[in-house]
Amino acid sequence: MKPFYNKPAKTLEEQADLLINRGLNINSREDLIKKLASVNYYKLRGYTYPYQDNTAPNSPFLPSNNWDEIWSDYVLDSRLRALLFESISHIETALKTQLTLNMSLGYEPTWYTDKDLFHNDEHFRTNFSELLKDWARSKEKFKEHYENDYNNAQLPPSWIIFETATYGVMSKYYGNLKKSVPEKDIIAQYFGFPHGCTEYLKSWLQNLNIVRNICAHHGRLFSRTGIVTPSYPTLPDNWLVLGFAHDKIYSSICVIKRLLDYCMPEYDFKTKLFDLISTASANQKSKMGFPAGWENEPLFR
Q1: What is the Cα–Cα distance from 269 to 257, expressed in whole angstroms?
Q2: CA 205, CA 199: separation in Å to the nearest integer?
Q3: pLDDT below 70 — which residues of the chain?
Q4: 256 within 8 A of 87, measured Cβ to Cβ
Q5: What's the confidence (pLDDT) of residue 229?
Q6: CA 241 to CA 294: how far, in whole Å?
Q7: pLDDT of residue 233
Q8: Nearest of 123, 99, 128 to residue 113 by alpha carbon
């Protein structure tokens, strides 16, 4: 039988002393205590982990550790999450617009209820259920207006109900559309894909859904690996940087840049990204998966 978790709560001073006793190299105990007052000790564990011997009892810090480097990782990650969350929100808005516009014109306003449009019946039922739950939870004024002015027995048109949908539900609706539905390809082409590349857009949206959720819940992102790897078609403008680690966040950054170039070119993602990466160390760039010379590749020129 597994033991119960019985570690007692510790004061900020006790937390700081625990880290110091385990070998954390600091300039100021007072500064460390102030940082611990604003950032949970347990949250910081994700950033101290690479600087510790995690195979030894109590995970002592490696001799070369430096609190300033650890804190720099945390600050960089916070800034990266803020940038990517804002950037993905523009892609989310464009996807909602394209999905509801094209599908509503091609079929009917409540096309999202027609299971014949979708590849997997089980996924359709799950997605439809989640869409209705999002609608039921919403406190938006436009929802109140719809329910007060129209017959509640009639489901809202997609351009209304999808405004209360999560990014995840929306991207799954797109991904589950049958390949034979021509609007699926029209939407992919809007985002810059050649004809017949809908499955690539599907994988990109899945990747960004995971990234968005990490950003929304303030999880560690910059050094994370194993995010769903986006698939890459051969595109005519040869934008893809070859030879980089596809399971690191740089891969998602490439996806975001490419999609924004088509759906929100006036949003200056490139400048914001360059400003952020200019503050990163070589080690931090490596953890994010940035290859040497990335800034000179076609995608970022």
Answers
A1: 7
A2: 10
A3: 233-245
A4: yes
A5: 76
A6: 7
A7: 67
A8: 128
Q: Report which secondary-structure segment, H or E, holds 103.
A: helix 67-106
pLDDT value at residue 240: 59
d(CA 112, CA 98): 14
H helices of 107-181, in order, are: 121-137, 141-149, 158-161, 167-176
Here the tokens at position 74 are: 């945390």
For residue 170, give the nearest of 119, 116, 209 by alpha carbon. Answer: 209
Residue 194's pLDDT is: 87
- β-sheet bridge partners, residue 118: 177
pTM, to two decimals: 0.92
Give pLDDT, residue 243: 52
The residue behind tokens 């995970």 is 59
Query: Which amino acid appears at position 180 of this protein?
Result: S
Structural tokens at position 251: 């891969």
Smallest CA-to-CA distance from 32 within 13, 50, 48, 47 is with: 13
Strands (E), the chain: none
Evaluated on CA atoms 264, 294, 167, 73, the torsion sign reads: negative
CB-based burial label for 30 (10 Å; 0-12, 13-18, 19+): exposed
Question: CA-CA distances (angstroms) from residue 196 to 21, 92, 182, 245, 258?
Answer: 59, 22, 10, 26, 18
Contact 61, 48 (CB under 8 A): yes
In angstroms, the CA 188 to CA 287 distance is 31
Q: Specify the DSSP class assigned to residue 267.
A: S
User: Which pair of structure tokens corresponds to residue 237?
Assistant: 């403008």
Classify residue 16 as left (phi > 0), alpha (psi -120 to 50) or beta: alpha
